Amino acid sequence: MDTTKKRHTDNKEADILHAAEREFLSKGYAGARTTAIAEAAGVTHAMLHYYFRTKEQLFKRILDEKLRLMGQSVLAAFGQPELPLMARIKDGIERHFDFIAANPELPRFIVNEIFAHPERYELMQENIRVLLNPLQYSLQQELDESAARNDTEPIDARMLLIDIISLNVFAFIAFPIIQPLLGDLTADREHFFAQRKQENIETIMRRLKKL
Amino acid sequence: MDTTKKRHTDNKEADILHAAEREFLSKGYAGARTTAIAEAAGVTHAMLHYYFRTKEQLFKRILDEKLRLMGQSVLAAFGQPELPLMARIKDGIERHFDFIAANPELPRFIVNEIFAHPERYELMQENIRVLLNPLQYSLQQELDESAARNDTEPIDARMLLIDIISLNVFAFIAFPIIQPLLGDLTADREHFFAQRKQENIETIMRRLKKL
DNA sequence: ATTTGCATTAACAAAATTGTTAATTACATA
DNA sequence: TATGTAATTAACAATTTTGTTAATGCAAAT
User: Fold this and answer.
1) B45: CB within 7 A of chain D nucleic strand
2) Best interface-test mutation with A: which of B115, B136, B152 has the largest number of A CBs within 10 A?
3) Is any Cβ of chain A less than 8 angstroms from the Cβ of B196?
4) d(CA A40, C1' D11) / Å
5) How far does chain A reach from its first CA to its final CA, in angstroms?
6) Which residue from A73, A31, A37 is spatially nearest to A52, judged by alpha carbons?
7) Could you read off the pLDDT tens digit of each residue along chain B, which spans 211 residues?
8) Does residue B130 belong to the interface with chain A, where contact is any CB pair within 8 Å?
């Protein structure tokens, strides 16, 4: 029926939210145009103000959802405590990588908007902390136990998570820059990112292994 | 004499460029205001158009300079071929890290603006490639020789560089997000980044070492 | 001293962008 | 069917933002 990507439903409020997500994610708050959102949603731009009052309020709806999604993705990726440590971490890297691959615009969007307006972030902070603190502690405990058994190197769980997220996220963020520089390597996008995934797993596993 | 940060010289063109750099780096092209640039530079905004015609042309001056700087920083960091391989790479990581630490806004700026307008990047691409290709080849050659001697693990030089740049850049990009989540760890900013630097070196050295 | 050319300003203008409002339509329910 | 509420539109308005222009200043060369 509808061959276009943007399926307009009978729910204009949802259509606007959907169009806003695309506009804000790709252009950021400053670059986004409410008129463009309305047009993409197939409504007059007065409707946008009718449902969401202001650009800022509409934006906040999107940002909050994406912040929650980002936090949950980390939790979902590493929250498999039944596995042994190394398997748990390897599995976590893969899940987290796959999530970023499925949402490649998300990290840049969040990083930018938090940087531009840190105060927007303040309300969400506590929620995310509550979500991620238990993960941090359970992971740290496992790491400490494993290190005590001399199975792996001792490491701060937070540093390890930053390592993993750095490796998983950066290639997606920087892809438009490195692609023209590494033409052949990145020619097949799927293959390049499959390689990156393996490289990240290898790098982190080696970070933890006893030498 | 002048206790303010923005030293206005007798050269208004330079003052505008300096103010434009600060505005564009912190807000991006879409968020930057030419009136704010003119005000920060202490000139009427007509002067901005007199010297640079359009916002776009002024922006391009800044972007080109920053792209060149970013490319040169990688070259300068790893272009010390007299050292043995592991020392060369460790030294490169440190130099590159220090450059990012001294220019923490740069990666986000470049990543964003290239993503928003890839066509702006086309002219610079070839310059950067010419700059970085010799580095890539000399590094690959050393890596291959070292691996042939069974001193280190075999690895693609481009993948290694992406690993290093990912680790070095991401903590700076994401700092506003992780700081509120990891309050105590990041309380002393200097100390946190000193730790990150050591962590990155450790991670990459282990990536290369024979097990 | 006059001319010439660049630098500078104030005022203006055009377009874009966000937001409002009053009138109209659709729709459910009494 | 009448009525009340929500949805929708077109027109308007305010502000912001980029860019132009014509007049003026200023300093060096003729």
Assistant:
1) yes
2) B115
3) yes
4) 22
5) 59
6) A37
7) 332 344 466 788 999 999 999 999 999 999 999 999 999 999 999 999 999 999 999 999 999 999 999 999 999 999 877 899 999 999 999 999 999 999 999 999 999 999 999 999 998 999 999 999 999 999 999 999 999 999 999 999 999 999 999 999 999 999 999 999 998 899 999 999 999 999 999 999 999 999 8
8) no
pTM recorded for the entire structure: 0.93
Domains of chain B: 1-53 (1.10.10.60), 59-208 (1.10.357.10)
Which residue in A28, A159, A202 is closest to B30 by CB distance? A28
Q: Residue B152 phi/psi, 5° resolution?
A: -140, 165
- Residue A65 (CA) to nucleotide C29 (C1'), in angstroms, measures 36
Task: Kindly state the DSSP code that residue A127 receives in the 8-state scheme.
Answer: H
Amino acid at A82: E
CA of A17 and C1' of C25: distance in angstroms?
24
Q: What residue has its CA nearest to the C1' of C11?
A: B46
Instruction: Please state, in angstroms and rounded to a whole number, the distance separating the CA atoms of residues A69 and A89.
Output: 20
* Residues in chain B, total: 211
Structure tokens at B3: 């206790």
